[in-house]
Structure formats: C-alpha cells, structure tokens
Design brief:
Length: about 290
Amino acid sequence: MILTKGQRAFQLFNIILLFVIGLTMVLPILNVLAQSFSNASAINSGAVGIWPVGFTLENYHLILKDASIWVAFRNSLIITVFGTLINLLATASLAYPLSRPEYLYRKMALVFVLITMIFHAPLIPNYLLLKNLHMLNTLWVLMIPSAISAYNLFVMRSFFMNLPNELLDSARIDGCGEFRMIWNIVLPMSKPVMATMGIMYAVANWNMYSQAIFYIDKRTLITLQVRLREIVITDNMGSSDVTSELMALVSPEGLKMAVIVIATIPIMLIYPFLQKHFIKGMLVGSIKS
C-alpha cells in the first residue's frame, strides 16, 4: 500500500512521540541501575548518568548482608505466589457463574460487586473486622481480604461470556459435571485471561504496602516494600552485620538504588513468560460488556 504524504507524516509523528515517551520511562530506570553500580564519590558528585561511574558491587554486597532484607523478600514472595493463586481461584470461581445466563440472581450479585467499586470500606471498621477475625499480624491479612478485585472480576467475566455455549452444552449432554467442565474445558480455554489477571494480581501483591503498614506490626512479617520505605526515607539498614567501615564505602543514594533494583527486578522477570497471553487476554476481555 502506497502511503500519502500526510500518512507518512502521521506515522513519523507517532514514531517520534512513542520514542520520546519510551525514553521518559527507560532513562530513569537506567539511572537507577547506574547509581546502584557506582561508587560513593561518583554518586555524591552527581557524575552518574545512565552508565555506572567507578563500577562497584559494594551497594548490593551491603544490602544482601542485611538479614531483614531477606526476611522481607521471603514474605513478599509468599504473598505474591500464594496470594496470586488465591486471587485467581476466587475470581474465576465468582466470574464463571456470573457469566452464565442459566444461573439465577447473577444480576443482583453483579450489582453487589459494582457497589464495591464505588464505595470502599473505611479503614477503622475494616481494621476492627480483621481484628475480630484474628487476622492481624498474619500474612493471611494481606491475601484474603483482597482475594477478588472487582475490576478484574468484570474482565474475567467478559472473557467467560465469549466462550461458545454450544461447547459447554455438548459437555453437559455428554454427562460432564460443572466442576469437571470448569477444570477440563473452561480453564484450559482461558489461558490468556488467566495469565493477564495473574500478572495484574502478582504485581499488586508484590507491591503490597499500605495494608502491610496498617495491619502488621511484627518485624518478621514486614514486606519488601515496607523495608524499602524504611531504607529510602530513614536510611535505616537495621542490621548489626552492617559496620561503619562498610557504610563508609558506599553512598546512601547508592544503597537506595540497589534496594529499588532488588525490589523491582523479580516482578519484571515474570512478564516475558506471560507476554504472549497478556495482550490477547486484555483485548478479548474488554470486547464484550
């Protein structure tokens, strides 16, 4: 197809615009990486751009000596893995019946779900509820109350509504029960939306912050984001293994950047494995209301 001058100019404008937007996202990440691998004098003098100056691994060496980092990393990993499994199981369990016309009261249930998108429970009543349920100072308090996101539920329900009714009816005629049909037919056909929701839930669980602040006091149960906040705001390494001699070798800014990298890289590694399902899941789930 031969493009007109106007179409070529529009494509060139789009390319330049997307390139500039991409730079605004990539350059800060490169700067964080560069500072995390730079020595203290280079960081303090402001000489670090997008490449490390005075390459060193002391920032990461010091961070990884802090035992509280590993404890927080373990807690965030548990919340991300098991919390995401709970999210997917709970969301699919509610989204599937709400997508089938043969289930009664589904419209009423949808209204109840929609109300939660508009009105959120206040903090104090929510805190008292979780306290009476004896969930405070447990990792369950970070996984169970947020098991279902209303927005993700509607996206998954829309995807289930696009499944062919003829296929499900044929399975019922052949004697397939509801549980077996969901496990053997619906879920295998729903890999795109499950992968998409899995990424969205995993990112939310990995970045769990405010709930961890409100509902957890024990130091052994803090999340990585809470520990990151302590280091970034208070410069508190909090470990007896970190000596003043080691602290003298690094810059506080370099330590902060190293912690940010450690907190960011694990969740970024998930995306390439699920990328092929991600775009398809979002588009298919958004076509039908």
